[in-house]
Design goal:
Elements (H helix, E strand, L loop, with lengths): L3 H6 L25 E8 L26 E4 L1 H4 L8 E6 L12 E8 L20 E5 H4 L10 E8 L8 E7 L2 E7 L7 E7 L6 E7 L2 E5 L7 E7 L4 E8 L8 E3 L6
């Protein structure tokens, strides 16, 4: 069972987000510059626990994200838009605790909820205006000694590298269809999604939460195609990803963005 602190740190995103937008990100933008932040970690969880997180990726180990993940504070999480984006993180300023010459690459998969019972410079690590990363201890220990706890770091946005194609996981019931978009290379985060059946044109989907997109349409007994656009403005189209006899709960693989 996860410890209480872990549950508090990773509470789902609320409507109290005040994040700035990461839309229209490009590798040449200022987000690729090193920026200051701080990082804490959470201890290893019971392996029987499945940690889905606020981005909806489900079991992070099974779905290919492993321990190279991060929960982000309000100013970075952007109401879930940032889900799937990749960051390079390094420890700075503290020669006692930092491991020199090291850095890690993590994917944004979760939200570190603010705790307004504490000041931002006290126990409210993830309160606005703090830029804060919560890392698995396995990732944290690659850049710093665990006794450091709340460490000054630097981070920068980078392109994601993923094995295989973009994954589309279908869920829902009746005419309600929810699609989780995961394993996205390139910019990593998706800003628009469309779906097409063999008997329909392209239908725009709405963001439900994280990288879950939804639509109300009768698309059963039709092969499904997907068109997704990442935050750097690149659009990727994958035709006939799901066969005619697709079912809820299944995952299908499409094309992949260049990384």
């Amino acid at each position: 069972m996860l410890v209480l602190l872990f549950l508090v740190a990773f509470t789902l995103c609320s409507t109290r987000s005040f994040a700035h937008s990461h839309y229209n990100w490009s590798p040449s933008s200022t987000t690729t510059e090193w920026r200051p932040a701080r990082a804490t970690y959470y201890a290893a969880a019971d392996p029987r626990d499945v940690v889905g997180g606020a981005c909806g990726y489900g079991d992070l180990e099974r779905n290919g994200y492993g321990k190279s993940t991060a929960g982000l504070s309000t100013v970075l999480f952007d109401r879930g838009q940032i889900c799937g984006a990749c960051f390079q993180v390094r420890c700075v300023e503290d020669l006692r605790w930092c491991i020199p010459g090291t850095s890690i690459i993590v994917t944004a998969t979760n939200f570190c909820a603010p705790n307004y019972g504490f000041e931002p410079d006290g126990g409210g690590h993830c309160n606005p205006p703090n830029a804060h990363f919560v890392l698995p201890i396995e990732a944290f220990e690659k850049i710093a000694i665990w006794k450091a706890s709340n460490m000054p770091i630097q981070y920068r946005r980078i392109k994601c590298r993923k094995e295989g194609g973009v994954r589309f996981t279908l869920d829902g019931a009746g005419i309600f269809l929810s699609v989780l978009v995961s394993n996205v290379a390139g910019a990593g985060d998706i800003v628009a999604a469309k779906i097409k059946g063999s008997r329909t044109g392209w239908l725009s989907m709405g963001r439900n939460w994280g990288q879950n997109w939804h639509i109300n349409a009768d698309l059963k007994n039709q092969p499904l195609s997907f068109e997704i656009t990442s935050s750097d403005g690149v659009t990727l189209t994958s035709y006939n990803v799901a066969p005619k006899n697709w079912n809820f709960g299944q995952t299908f693989q499409g094309k992949q963005f260049k990384s």
